Write a sequence for this structure.
């Protein structure tokens, strides 16, 4: 704010001398600004130092003959208390814990998820003759576990097996409702170039890499359970969090939670 017409150039006065610098109109305006809590007021005059007291607030104005610009003004109330927001009105920020990227929980099928070796028993028999059910899983309540995992954001489930895709898909459908069963990824040798269901590959690593590629994640974000220790060793060397499960039972569930927690924030 500039009040060039509201003050007359005078010689500097030293305290405690006083002088009226601004007109009554100017002082009224200053008082209105102070009462309306306008802070950061800058005044330019013809070159005079003035100190006054308006509505209980102290004003300092510094003048310079060279520039005729008063650079700053400081306002405070020595007795005014800072406003405190009642505790009950303070909204605490929500603390969010979750996953930035997907993690994958993957299982072998025969003698891992299942108590027996289904491909060894049924080989290439028609699928209509093969009817796996909930009681054939080693975990007593695998459906509830799968459902709880699938309901978590950014947690995916998969089966990586050397067996048959159709048998595994049928088994998963026996413990989950259709909308959830369809979200479990089944990866068998036929998904690998040159592979065929029912015929072993040198390791599960090609299948684990395919699963990682599908989700767009690094293989280190996979937690993999298998009864074959050779597959476990290859997977660990590949960077996968691989755990022996011969078979997978309730006692191994903490490994899943630890894996998810490791990648949570």
């Amino acid at each position: 704010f500039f009040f060039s017409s509201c003050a007359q150039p005078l010689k500097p006065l030293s305290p405690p001398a006083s002088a009226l610098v601004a007109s009554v109109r100017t002082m009224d305006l200053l008082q209105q600004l102070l009462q309306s809590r306008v802070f950061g007021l800058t005044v330019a005059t013809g070159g005079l130092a003035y100190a006054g007291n308006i509505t209980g607030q102290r004003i300092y104005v510094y003048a310079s003959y060279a520039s005729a610009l008063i650079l700053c003004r400081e306002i405070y109330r020595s007795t005014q208390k800072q406003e405190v927001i009642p505790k009950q009105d303070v909204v605490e920020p929500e603390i969010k814990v979750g996953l930035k990227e997907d993690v994958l929980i993957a299982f072998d099928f025969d003698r891992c998820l299942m108590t027996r070796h289904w491909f060894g028993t049924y080989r290439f028999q028609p699928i209509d003759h093969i009817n796996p059910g909930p009681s054939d899983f080693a975990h007593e309540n695998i459906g509830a576990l799968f459902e709880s995992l699938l309901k978590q954001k950014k947690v995916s489930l998969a089966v990586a097996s050397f067996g048959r895709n159709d048998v595994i898909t049928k088994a998963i459908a026996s413990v989950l409702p259709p909308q959830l069963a369809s979200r479990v990824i089944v990866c068998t040798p036929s998904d690998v170039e040159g592979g065929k269901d029912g015929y072993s590959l040198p390791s599960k690593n090609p299948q684990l890499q395919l699963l990682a590629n599908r989700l767009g994640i690094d293989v280190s974000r996979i937690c993999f359970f298998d009864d074959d220790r050779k597959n476990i060793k290859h997977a660990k060397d590949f960077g996968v969090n691989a755990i022996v499960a011969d078979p997978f039972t309730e006692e191994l569930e903490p490994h899943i939670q630890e894996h998810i927690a490791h990648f949570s924030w």
